[in-house]
């Protein structure tokens, strides 16, 4: 049972829907997908931002930042200490079912992103949000499918921080905002991809897996391993990179027909040493530096989590419950 009040039906007077404002924020000038859908709520110092990264195998133009809409609608009714929502769009790789003519397609609409383009965009979006709204580390980064990959890549020692390296390259996000002011307090991975090679090998009889991974990361399988959150340990992985992190939630459904349960098992193993060590955070105002790793069983097919929003909202609510138990939220 949730520790937070669940409001049934209409939102009562004085809750978060009364003072909300939604707009699109642009963080890059190279592509039309370099934007974030932002909903600001009534200011509250004890609140957290919930920031979503959509899935779609790094390439599906049908799966967009709008895929968070149903989840956001549900979460707005739950009385959670949320200060704002954001759903990140990022440049996509080419999709064989959605061919484009490079001559007649506006470059700002053309899909040809390769790693590290996707994570560059996510990091640029996060930095812009932080610098615009000033929430520091008080945010929960939520990712579905490859969005969960990107969420954990954002705190990997070997992957995060590419924005500065890319600033002079063709295809960079354009004028770049400052680096992240702080890492997320919590990351929620839903139906996540954490080991690229393992995913391909598990589904070796389905060529689409090789296709979309290669489309996003190229053919070098050593690179696949180097960017897989479940493969990289020590200072180059999440273990050493996510220094201030407090909570990791891995949500998976046994009915998921696209991403199997071995992905969660691999990521859980990779996070064991991270959970055992204390978070690197200022002493002032903090009673403890303990961390938590939790696996949450959800239900439904792969895309059902965001299509009706119920299971994705359940995972976010669960994260708030865990933060409350840890004394990190009221």
UniProtKB/TrEMBL annotation:
Residues 8-21 have a biased composition (Polar residues). The main chain amide nitrogen atoms of the second glycine and its adjacent residue in the HGGXW motif define the oxyanion hole, and stabilize the oxyanion that forms during the nucleophilic attack by the catalytic serine during substrate cleavage. Homodimer. The keyword Metal-binding does not apply. Its EC number is 3.5.1.9. It catalyses: N-formyl-L-kynurenine + H2O = L-kynurenine + formate + H(+). Residues 50-288 form the AB hydrolase-1 domain. It comes from the Eukaryota. GO terms for biological process: 'de novo' NAD+ biosynthetic process from L-tryptophan; antibiotic biosynthetic process; L-tryptophan catabolic process to kynurenine; monocarboxylic acid biosynthetic process. A motif (HGGXW) lies at residues 54-58. Transmembrane segments: none annotated. Pathway: Amino-acid degradation; L-tryptophan degradation via kynurenine pathway; L-kynurenine from L-tryptophan: step 2/2. InterPro entries: AB_hydrolase_1, AB_hydrolase_fold, GDXG_lipolytic_enzyme, KFase_ver/fungi-typ. It holds the Pfam family Abhydrolase_6. It comes from Penicillium egyptiacum. Catalyzes the hydrolysis of N-formyl-L-kynurenine to L-kynurenine, the second step in the kynurenine pathway of tryptophan degradation. Kynurenine may be further oxidized to nicotinic acid, NAD(H) and NADP(H). Required for elimination of toxic metabolites. SUPFAM superfamilies: alpha/beta-Hydrolases (SSF53474). The active site is at residues 145, 256, 302. Belongs to the kynurenine formamidase family. Residues 1-21 are annotated as: Disordered. GO terms for molecular function: arylformamidase activity. Keywords: Hydrolase, Tryptophan catabolism. This is Kynurenine formamidase.
